[in-house]
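Design review, sub-item: ligand-bound model
Attendees: FS, YL, KQ
YL presented the inputs for the S-adenosylmethionine complex:
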Amino acid sequence: MPESFFVLSKDNLEIAIDEIISIAKIYDRFAKVKVSSNLVIIQSKISWEWITKRATFVKVSGQILRKMSGLFLDEENFEILKNAKTFVCRIVNLSSNQFNIPELEKAMGDMIIKFSKAQVSLKNPDITIYLIFTDKENFFGFSKRFEVENRPKKIKKYPHELDWKLTRVMINLIGLKEGETVCDPFCGTGTTLLEAESMGIHAIGLDFDEKMYNISKENLDVNGYKSKIIKADFSQLTNMIDEFEGIVTDLPYGIASKSSENPEELMKKFVSILPKRKKIAIMCKKGFEKKLNINPIKKYEIYRHKSLTRTILIK
Ligand SMILES: C[S@@+](CC[C@H](N)C(=O)[O-])C[C@H]1O[C@@H](n2cnc3c(N)ncnc32)[C@H](O)[C@@H]1O
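KQ shared the predicted structure:
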């Protein structure tokens, strides 16, 4: 079974690791995972490209060729360069040792050129060969160039909108598959809907504010997206329980966003109508979750700036 590696951004590391694991388990519940600081290794039938395309915080990823015993690759490892015109060597040093990285990369490149017809290209090569150092083990790995999908456009913004990365990570953490449907009962500018559709997941959004409803609609239209948006109170979601598999939402706290009533009362009502057997990710301002009668299976804190730390609750 192939092993893939993912080097993650160290910001929000806990959530980044859980996201990778969650994506792998969506498609292969028998996937085996090893985590070492910001390196995640997954043994699974799911390819590294597939996981990387869905993930939010991956810096570098690829497939492991083999554990490294010396600086040299075996002849069979050069198979990956068979049809490649260009390649580059990259060192990823996650160990506590210091290396002269440019020198090592060049030495590896010089060695590979002797065995392969491919030429070194620093820009957009067909194949990238990695040498990954950790304090425990070192690996050779590689990745192929792949198309990065275009991000959805957002023509209308609003101060309370959520950034796409946190939205995407929430969708991934509740493990929705392509073809399933997510509901955002406080959809605002439609960030959840846009992100979900860009991942092949259907979406339904509710917002009681006509202005936000229109903004969401325009943002969807410009991308040719077909998510359903309803100008309605969040409580309407109880009438459409069979239409979605999960909820991803960012609560109105009454600061930048308009709230139909006192945010605390609104939240209590919201929690009381949450469907029991759905996957749920809720974002709120840190501290607010204590007022919610929710028993999350996981809680993350995302520091934004001095006066804003966000909390994500997974239920
Ligand atoms: C924090 S904003 C959501 C922002 C959204 N995630 C985005 O990226 O644009 C909360 C939204 O909840 C909406 N809202 C407030 N009270 C509501 C209610 N009772 N029912 C439905 N929507 C409500 C507000 O109009 C606001 O757009």
